[in-house]
Design goal:
By secondary structure, the protein is mostly helical. The protein starts with a helix and ends in a 17-residue tail after the last helix. The protein contains 3 helices and no strands.
C-alpha cells in the first residue's frame, strides 16, 4: 500500500496555490456576506411573501370549486 502513495502526485488543492485560492475564496465569501447581509435577509422574506401571495390569489380570486371541469352546468357541450 505504501508504494501506491509514493506514485500519486499531490493534488493541486493541497498545494500552496490551492490553499491560497481557498483562503481567498473564503475571504470573498466573508466580505459578500458581511456587506450584503441585509439584501439576503430581505430577499428571503420577499420569496416567501411572493409564494404566499400566489397561494392567496389562487384561493381567493380563482374559482376554487371546479378545478378540472370548466363547462357550464346548463348542459351546453360547446
Amino acid at each position: 500500500m505504501d508504494h501506491e502513495r509514493e506514485n500519486c502526485q499531490p493534488s493541486w488543492v493541497r498545494s500552496a496555490f490551492g490553499l491560497v485560492l481557498f483562503a481567498l475564496a473564503m475571504f470573498v465569501v466573508f466580505l459578500l456576506l458581511a456587506e450584503h447581509r441585509a439584501h439576503l435577509i430581505l430577499g428571503t422574506w420577499l420569496i416567501w411573501l411572493l409564494a404566499l401571495g400566489c397561494i392567496a390569489a389562487h384561493v381567493f380570486l380563482g374559482r376554487h370549486g371546479g378545478h378540472g371541469d370548466r363547462r357550464s352546468s346548463t348542459g351546453d357541450k360547446s
